[in-house]
């Protein structure tokens, strides 16, 4: 399973990248706005740190505008993926861009039908938002599981990025149902390698070692 970081914070990316755990990065206009930095500058910096796919989202709502923006964004680095919203215009843009060899990540997917449409239009990645589905009482994990089945049934090449991840349990569940990728907020990532019993165990080992050393002296 691949881990992407769902952040545009360069310090977070560097910290987790140094552990060899960052296979890619996803951003959206909200995430970019949090950094208060120039869009192009921050995306180029992220692309220079991470060799895997880095998603940068268009803001146009019409296919022509999306394609124009995407062609520009795609020039910023070799590992750029252009994020496109899941609309009719977005599908049209995805289809054009896939024919031009520009990688796309179709975002804001909330149903199996939407995921299937995006994959058929030529999306490289599809991003179902599981946390936002959970928020309205619909199990997000079921969508990820169903999408994986549908992609497998028809040999569709799009990879599933489980997005809108809010908890450790979300990450574990997406791994169990076969999401290709989980995109994880930087603030959540450290929870993946932590456990209170690990901390307690280390503290006990240290305490016992200190007592042993004192007895020895
Ligand atoms: O990758 C999409 C993700 O950033 C959305 O997360 O928490 O805003 O639903 P959230």
From TrEMBL:
PANTHER family the record matches: TRANSALDOLASE
EC numbers: 2.2.1.2
**What's the protein name?**
Probable transaldolase
Q: Name the family.
A: Belongs to the transaldolase family. Type 3B subfamily.
Q: Which Gene3D superfamilies match?
A: Aldolase class I
Q: In which pathway does it act?
A: Carbohydrate degradation; pentose phosphate pathway; D-glyceraldehyde 3-phosphate and beta-D-fructose 6-phosphate from D-ribose 5-phosphate and D-xylulose 5-phosphate (non-oxidative stage): step 2/3
Record's function text:
Transaldolase is important for the balance of metabolites in the pentose-phosphate pathway.
Among the Pfam families in the record, one is TAL_FSA
| Reactions it catalyzes | D-sedoheptulose 7-phosphate + D-glyceraldehyde 3-phosphate = D-erythrose 4-phosphate + beta-D-fructose 6-phosphate
Keywords of this entry: Cytoplasm, Pentose shunt, Schiff base, Transferase
Q: What is its main location?
A: cytoplasm
Keyword Metal-binding in the entry? The reply is no
Instruction: Tell me the compartments it is located in.
Output: Cytoplasm
- Record: active site: 83 (schiff-base intermediate with substrate)
Which SUPFAM superfamilies does this entry report, sorted A to Z?
A: Aldolase (SSF51569)
Is-annotated flag, keyword Cytoplasm? yes
């Amino acid at each position: 399973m691949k881990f992407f970081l769902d952040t545009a914070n360069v310090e977070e990316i560097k910290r987790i990248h140094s552990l060899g755990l960052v296979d890619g990065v996803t951003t959206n206009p909200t995430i970019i706005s949090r950094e208060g930095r120039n869009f192009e500058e921050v995306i180029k910096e992220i692309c220079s740190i991470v060799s895997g796919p880095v998603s940068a989202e268009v803001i146009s709502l019409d296919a022509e505008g999306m394609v124009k923006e995407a062609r520009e964004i795609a020039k910023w680095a070799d590992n750029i993926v252009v994020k496109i919203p899941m609309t009719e215009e977005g599908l049209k843009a995805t289809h054009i861009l896939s024919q031009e060899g520009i990688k796309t990540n179709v975002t804001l997917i909330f149903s199996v039908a939407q995921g299937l449409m995006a994959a058929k239009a030529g999306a490289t990645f599809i991003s179902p938002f599981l946390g936002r589905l959970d928020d309205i009482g619909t199990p997000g994990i079921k969508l990820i599981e169903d999408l994986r089945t549908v992609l497998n049934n028809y040999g569709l090449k799009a990879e599933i990025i489980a997005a809108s991840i809010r908890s450790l349990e979300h990450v574990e569940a997406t791994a169990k149902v076969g999401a290709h990728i989980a995109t994880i907020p930087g603030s959540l990532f450290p929870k993946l390698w932590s456990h209170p019993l690990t901390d307690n165990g280390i503290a006990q080992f240290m305490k016992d070692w200190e007592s042993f050393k004192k007895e020895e002296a």
